[in-house]
Amino acid sequence: MTLPPLAQYLPILDWGRRYDRGQFTGDMVAAVIVTIMLIPQSLAYALLAGMPPEAGIYASIAPIVLYAIFGTSRALAVGPVAVVSLMTAAAVGNIAESGTAGYVTAALTLAFLSGAMLLALGLFRLGFLANFLSHPVIAGFITASGILIAASQLRHILGIEAEGHTLVEILASLWAHLGEVNFITVLLGVTATGFLFWVRGGLKPLLKRMGLGPRMADIGAKMGPVLAIVGTTLAVWAFDLGEKGVAIVGEVPQSLPPLTLPSFSPDLLSQLFIPALLISIIGFVESISVAQTLAAKKRQRIDPDQELIGLGSANLGAAFTGGFPVTGGFSRSVVNFDAGAETPAAGAFTAVGLGLAALFLTPLIFFLPKATLAATIIVAVLSLVDFSILKRAWAFSHADFAAVSVTILLTLIFGVEAGVSAGVITSILVHLYKTSRPHMAVVGRVPGTEHFRNVLRHEVETQPHVLSLRVDESLYFPNARYLEDQLSRHAADKPELTDVVLMFPAVNEIDLSALESLEAINTRLKDADIRLHLSEVKGPVMDRLQRSHFLDELTGQVFLSQHEAVCALAKQVPGAEETAARREG
Amino acid sequence: MTLPPLAQYLPILDWGRRYDRGQFTGDMVAAVIVTIMLIPQSLAYALLAGMPPEAGIYASIAPIVLYAIFGTSRALAVGPVAVVSLMTAAAVGNIAESGTAGYVTAALTLAFLSGAMLLALGLFRLGFLANFLSHPVIAGFITASGILIAASQLRHILGIEAEGHTLVEILASLWAHLGEVNFITVLLGVTATGFLFWVRGGLKPLLKRMGLGPRMADIGAKMGPVLAIVGTTLAVWAFDLGEKGVAIVGEVPQSLPPLTLPSFSPDLLSQLFIPALLISIIGFVESISVAQTLAAKKRQRIDPDQELIGLGSANLGAAFTGGFPVTGGFSRSVVNFDAGAETPAAGAFTAVGLGLAALFLTPLIFFLPKATLAATIIVAVLSLVDFSILKRAWAFSHADFAAVSVTILLTLIFGVEAGVSAGVITSILVHLYKTSRPHMAVVGRVPGTEHFRNVLRHEVETQPHVLSLRVDESLYFPNARYLEDQLSRHAADKPELTDVVLMFPAVNEIDLSALESLEAINTRLKDADIRLHLSEVKGPVMDRLQRSHFLDELTGQVFLSQHEAVCALAKQVPGAEETAARREG
């Protein structure tokens, strides 16, 4: 299936042309369900990001529509998500005080920068960069973020002021304000949290017993937060708890998303550059894995580079309509999919629903206690916390374990940016380290055959004046110098050496650095009166070598097979031929 | 040859125990020759680095001795070199004015930081990091640096003030001061430059005709700068040219290297951190390639990690004895080697020679014109300029060409730090990009055999319900997601697909990210009613997989060979078996 170029960048042209009534019905039903679910979630994530509550709803409207136009997933629902909201609070909290105009502008600017970066990565097809965030690092980061988020929301449950972006800061700040606890808030918060935990575990079986199908029971259980919100809002209103010190959401403007402008101050842009990059990458990775999981169920196709364009447009949309950084969310996308969304039009209908809510429903949440929103956040993020990744990684490989532990520890101790940066850097360093020491084996002939095997693992024949080294990796700059080191070591250790044969059956590629290393090896061995030969060179590598002068300068020959090489280099005098057979392990 | 642990870190314990009279004679002769050559060179590089002249001599004394103790090369001569001196001038010039105490302190601090980094890299065996500076990037960087250095010295030849750390800045500054040219300085400078160019080309044949052996003629020609210095100093003294506006070296303290302290101000350390890192890596790479080239001629061995320790100690030495960053120099090491240096003791004797020079000879250079030093620098660095790397890279691979061009252009336009950083980043990005898209091939059976080949290159049999994908690379996080993308694409494009077989004959390793990708692939294919099988899995990879639950969850089987897989999965009804043979290219 090849698309015409425009449709490739505008997937809407593909599904839009074939849109029919059946799809419309599915999309409408899904949109209604997702809208009801998204209202509390949007308010809660705005609270988490330190933004005014309406910003959460605004951040779910334009981005959803833009993703519907440019994104490739049929079911992905874009909007504020927990981890990205936490990262927004951490980044913007360094620059301005929550609740100020500067804070909102910085959040818009962060969304703008992140959108521009995602768009650029998509247009230049650089999505592969996200690969360098390894699975264990992401798992560790999300677990640690979940803990940070839950800790940061405790203040709303306790009804006290507290701040901080690291676990230590948050806990110290909570401790310092512990005397100011508001017990009515605690009662509301703990009840809401308990109810929501029960909803997770108990509501679904209850709904099933009441006769709902398993899918609808699942969706019904996801509506729990709406019940908690309605219940606690009514309680605050009925008993006038706002007057008794319970923090409530208060006045929220009744308006469609406003037109807003991010700041283009170079200072602010440079301060937000690294956070925006990290948010973009984390958001993209989270989103694409949700999109691929859902697409697979219907054998649909996700184009990672186009996804970057979709998410980039969504964030740009958020920047110009009063939002903050967004990405594809897991739970909302699953609800959307399960509720029967057929096309991205479901997202557009959701946007209409949220727009109506922003216009007409905001007076109803005046009495909504912040503790309830905090409870929905805590219950949602605690499901992200999963330390079993440590056990899995330990069992599987210590390198992976190191990357996870570093990520978890640094996220908790130094905050999200330090944590995810350290995770990426650790992964890349471990990767570079492995790449820079490719497997190489000194080989000898299996007696009576034309096969050559590692001298350390097999009983094979070698000759003291010939060194046969099999290179089990393509040669390029990260490992070129290692080859030089290995050969100079062998040359220094074996005074009787006169011929070196490099076996290249596994070398798929040679770059200019490796070519220059081979030239240096050739010259140095020549200075030491050792000839250099090659054997079993693949066609494309031979083509490459012929584009340089290397083959003219080579002191030895290029043999088609290692057997041919060893026969040609065998000492003519039979007495001089020696069999050195070793066996280890 | 395995060394006891202490001797591994102190190579002097190895060669020192076996030191004999023959080696002593060779070392002494080499030391005398190198000392004579180093005096003008040290003064010149101090000028280039913006330091007082004596600092160049100091920077060659303690570092040489420390390298002799800790380094592994028998012939490497450590001291100020052109490229590192230029980088020092660029880094320190951003912080203080040349000629001030702050400038000297910053240079000492730079040497200290660079020494500490090299030492740390060596102790933690992180020398592999230097591999990520690819050969073409280094070649491009050195060529561009040579041009920058030559341009920066023109002011001394013209006798005017000029400054700047990029080609444009330097040329603009020269142009602005062109009215102030001192013609006597120009006469001296141009004569010295012409003489030194003649020395390069003409002195060696002349010495040979006079009966010297080729090696001694070579060494004699390297003494040319001493003649130029003596001649122009005498001219200045005789005709009192200092009074006529010729800039001279002037008073130089008569002293052994003083004890100095770098600054430990956190501000200064953080400003110099990145420059120190770049200087360390560039210096290490330059030094190790000289060391390996010379060691090969005598089948000696260089340990890269121990070299880091040697160079780190040398730079720490420079920091505490009035020097500036140093590394192993090419021309001085070659002279040392050719003059017959047998052990690092030659370096220690050179240090004694330079100490005597610092104590007794400095009054003799009072009248030395700076133009002569500039001439020696220009003639030395122009031999580094070699644009043929562009042609070589273009012919060999466009990726390498891109890395070289970026490095040369950015070094000239934005200076040394931007140039070398851009080069490293470009190399790593190109590498990551290549790594993240490993070669994979859909394969089919060569008719009548048990061999499987790429369907795009060979006429082979496939079945529409079975996809056989051969993975030609180890699976780890940079490419794990690519495999997911490829499989979701195939699953989306082939509605009749029921079985996928991943062939792993070339997969040497699987990390946790790849395992989780395989699990995701397994789950997603299951959702799409496609079974996942593996074939030709290597022993170590199988061991890894057995440490996880993947094999329990796998929807299909693990086949020993691809042939076995295809036979087992063939549709039983003969009519359903279809032969789809394709041939392209």
TrEMBL record, chains A, B:
Membrane topology reported for the UniProt record: Multi-pass membrane protein
Cellular component GO terms, alphabetical: membrane
Species of provenance: Sulfitobacter delicatus
Localization (cell): Membrane
GO BP terms: transmembrane transport
Protein name, as recorded: Sulfate permease, SulP family
Domain STAS residue range list: 456-569
Transmembrane segments annotated in the record for this chain: 28-49, 102-124, 136-154, 174-199, 219-239, 272-296, 308-326, 346-366, 373-390, 402-430
Pfam family, one: STAS
Keywords: Membrane, Transmembrane, Transmembrane helix
Gene3D superfamilies: STAS domain
InterPro entries associated with the record: SLC26A/SulP_dom (IPR011547), SLC26A/SulP_fam (IPR001902), STAS_dom (IPR002645), STAS_dom_sf (IPR036513)
